[in-house]
Amino acid sequence: MHHPYMWFVLAALTLVAELILGTFYFLVIGVSMMLVGLGGVWGYLDANMQGVLVVALSGLGCWRLWRYQQIQRQRPLEALEVIGQPVVVEQWLSPQQARVQWRGAHWDARLAKGHASLFGEATYIISAQEGNLLWIEPFTDIGSPPVKLH
Questions:
Q1: What letter does residue 137 receive in the DSSP assignment?
Q2: Residue 150 confidence (pLDDT)
Q3: Three-state DSSP class for residue 138
């Protein structure tokens, strides 16, 4: 087997592993093996340089992917513009719980502490989010503050 073609076989095996395991790290390694294989077939890389380049490209690609994942995990929830978004109350389950529609999906919602339910007489906005639970509060007019209980 000619040495550069070995990278194509290894890349195919790596991409199959990526499909089975569902991690993007194997995708990065497989793409780097394919690129080095192309460089070897075209005659730009000798055998020693191919191994060094696969390790370097895979390491750099995996590091960049890891950094991207870390940045995405640290992104604050407010950056997603959840707070202050209006919701449509579909059904009141209790005086403090409701089913709402937001962004085309049904969500469980609870009234924020200190707020009274107006049972459809007001527009409700999101004040916080905990997983798939939205905390809402009534918001009757753009110029006025939300209605609060004392």
A1: E
A2: 38
A3: strand
If one counts the domains in the chain, the total is 2
Do residues 49 and 17 make contact, with C-beta atoms less than 8 angstroms apart? no
Could you list the residue range(s) of the whole structural domain that residue 133 is in?
80-139
Residue with tokens 């509060």: 137
d(CA 72, CA 41) in angstroms, rounded, equals 38
Q: Does 45 lie in the same domain as 101?
A: no
Alpha carbon separation from 85 to 70, 125, 136 (Å, rounded): 27, 5, 10
Q: Are 134 and 96 in contact (CB under 8 A)?
A: no
User: pLDDT tens digits, residue range 20-79?
Assistant: 998 899 999 999 999 999 988 888 888 888 999 999 999 999 999 999 999 888 766 554
Tokens of residue 18, six digits: 């990526």
pTM for this prediction: 0.52
